[in-house]
């Protein structure tokens, strides 16, 4: 007979056995460790459950997935599958490298067991490198930056963790300014000097390339490099006179020669130079450093003074004798205010002239010229009477009216001026082979006094005659008038001469009659053939005293 204690132990054994049998369907399971590749399709197999019971059987059990990543899985019997979709793709770079959930087994709504589900997401090379935006922003680099120095660094990241190499696209012309010595560093090095005056902006393309994958995914970034002006240029007097140009299209200039004319009576006046005004600019145009002007030599004891900011030159006192000092040569320096060692020097020439009282004048406002058709490439333009057309001005400041400093020119006012050339003697030469008969051209002749700058103008009316056509002797209408006048004058003269001869003959006859009556001896002498002043008798000589 069992004791109460023995009865209790027996009941405990019976109850325990009953629960083991009852919960045996959730037994046999374990924690699940599995792997799945990112971008796997929906329903991708994850793992099989090792529990005894079948959730779809008669004595069913209930399985539940819980936890942060439980929604990435679903149960299909005793199989766990991936719960992805077209709109929700498993991405290791977004979800992380591991998905974790809990699998709970219920029997009669009583938790019988709980297992961990740990799924590692396997990486696939599905991302391209991507530059950090702040590393590919426009760059500003001074032209004074030393060659071989690191000017900037680019940085890209690959979400798949691949190794990235940086490469400069050498197809662009500006790529020659830069290089990358350590391909994985992204450090861009200046490979040759920059020059703001030659190029102010550079374009660069850099690639970030995966080098440890078979796909070799890459991405590119375009960078703009702005070259900042550095203080490396000296002042330059204007206007610039180009003398050469290098292969970088950099123009090399020389300083101009400034000139001005004064007279002996001039004093206390600003000088207007040509080309003018005297002015210099900092060679680094974007810096535009202020300049100071000074006269290095030729000031002649302050006869000439310069404004150190505007470069205006003043003549303070008159020149006593222009024959002793016909010219003054001033050496003018423009230096940077912040760096006097950066300077430039130009020459200003002051010429002392005699007082100019009379302007140059043409003796007529319009000249008439003719050209006869011929095959010669060049012909002198003639005027009436087939004389060479000579165009000259008169300057009464000279005794003979001829100013040796007078310069003649034909301004390019029309297409016809290209057909003519005027010499400094005032002779016009025409390109005959390019002219046609019956054409008529009007030219403007400008005569300029190269010393005083005074100008006189005249026009030339040129008519092209057909081959063989004579050049008129006088202006139209005047020749006929002169011809008629000549005929009338000739008739009048002939009539007057005839009357004069008749009168003279009448007077001679009367005079001869009177002589005959008064001098019979003369008449006899004439009859004897003697000269009337010869005596017919021997002369009587008087006796002379002994």
Automatic annotation (TrEMBL):
One of the GO BP terms on file: cell migration
Tell me yes or no: is Cell membrane among this UniProt entry's keywords.
Answer: no
Q: Name one Pfam family in it.
A: Cadherin
Location (main, coarse):
membrane
Question: Where would I find the Cadherin domain in this sequence?
Answer: 34-131, 133-237, 254-362, 363-474
Location in the cell reads:
Membrane
Q: Which GO terms describe its cellular component?
A: catenin complex
UniProt signal peptide: 1-23
Can the keyword Transmembrane be found in this entry's annotation? yes
Q: Which GO terms describe its molecular function?
A: beta-catenin binding; cadherin binding; calcium ion binding
Write out the entry's keywords from A to Z: Calcium, Membrane, Repeat, Signal, Transmembrane, Transmembrane helix
Membrane-spanning parts: 489-509
Domain of life, per lineage: Eukaryota
Protein's name according to its UniProt entry: Cadherin domain-containing protein
């Amino acid at each position: 007979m069992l004791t109460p204690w023995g009865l209790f132990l027996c009941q405990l054994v019976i109850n325990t056995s009953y629960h083991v049998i009852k919960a045996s369907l959730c037994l046999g399971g374990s924690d699940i460790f599995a792997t799945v590749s990112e971008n796997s399709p929906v329903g991708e197999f994850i793992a099989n459950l090792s529990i005894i019971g079948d959730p779809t059987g008669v004595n069913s059990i209930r399985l539940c997935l819980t936890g942060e990543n439980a929604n990435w899985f679903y149960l299909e019997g005793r199989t766990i599958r991936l719960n992805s979709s077209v709109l929700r793709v498993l991405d290791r770079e977004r979800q992380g490298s591991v998905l974790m959930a809990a699998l709970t087994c219920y029997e009669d709504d009583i938790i019988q067991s709980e297992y961990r589900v740990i799924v590692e997401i396997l990486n696939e090379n599905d991302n391209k490198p991507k530059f950090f935006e702040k590393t590919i922003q426009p760059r500003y680099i001074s032209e004074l930056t030393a060659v071989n120095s690191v000017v900037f660094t680019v940085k890209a990241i690959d979400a798949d963790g691949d190794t990235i190499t940086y490469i400069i696209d050498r197809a662009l012309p500006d790529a020659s300014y830069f290089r990358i010595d350590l391909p994985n560093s992204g450090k861009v090095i200046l490979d040759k000097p920059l020059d703001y005056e030659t190029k102010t902006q550079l374009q660069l393309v850099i690639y970030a390339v995966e080098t440890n994958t078979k796909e070799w995914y890459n991405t590119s970034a375009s960078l703009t490099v702005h070259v900042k002006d550095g203080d490396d240029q000296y002042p330059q007097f204007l206007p610039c006179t180009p003398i050469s140009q290098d292969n970088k299209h950099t123009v090399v200039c020389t300083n101009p020669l400034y000139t001005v004319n004064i007279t002996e009576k001039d004093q206390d006046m600003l000088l207007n130079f040509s080309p003018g005004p005297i002015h210099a600019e900092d060679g680094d145009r974007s810096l535009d450093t202020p300049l100071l002007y000074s006269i290095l030599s030729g000031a002649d004891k302050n006869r000439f003074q310069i404004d150190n900011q505007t470069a205006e030159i003043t003549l303070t006192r008159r020149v006593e004798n222009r024959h002793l000092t016909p010219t003054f040569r001033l050496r003018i320096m423009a230096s940077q205010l912040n760096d006097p060692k950066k300077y430039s020097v130009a020459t200003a020439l002051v010429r002392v002239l005699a007082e100019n009282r009379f302007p140059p004048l043409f003796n007529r406002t319009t000249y008439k010229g003719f050209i006869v058709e011929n095959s010669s490439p060049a012909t002198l333009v003639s005027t009436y009477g087939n004389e060479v057309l000579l165009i000259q001005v008169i300057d009464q400041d000279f005794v003979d009216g001829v100013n040796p400093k007078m310069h003649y020119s034909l301004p390019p006012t029309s297409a016809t001026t290209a057909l003519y050339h005027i010499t400094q003697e005032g002779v016009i030469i025409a390109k005959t082979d390019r002219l046609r008969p019956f054409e008529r051209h009007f030219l403007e002749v400008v005569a300029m006094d190269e010393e005083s700058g005074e100008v006189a103008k005249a026009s030339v009316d040129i008519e092209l005659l057909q081959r063989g056509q004579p050049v008129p002797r006088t202006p139209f209408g005047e020749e006929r008038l002169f011809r008629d006048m000549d005929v009338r004058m000739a008739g009048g003269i002939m009539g007057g001469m005839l009357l004069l001869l008749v009168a003279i003959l009448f007077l001679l006859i009367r005079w001869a009659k009177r002589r005959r009556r008064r001098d019979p001896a003369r008449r006899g002498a004439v009859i004897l053939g003697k000269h009337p002043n010869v005596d017919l008798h021997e002369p009587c000589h008087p006796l002379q005293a002994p």
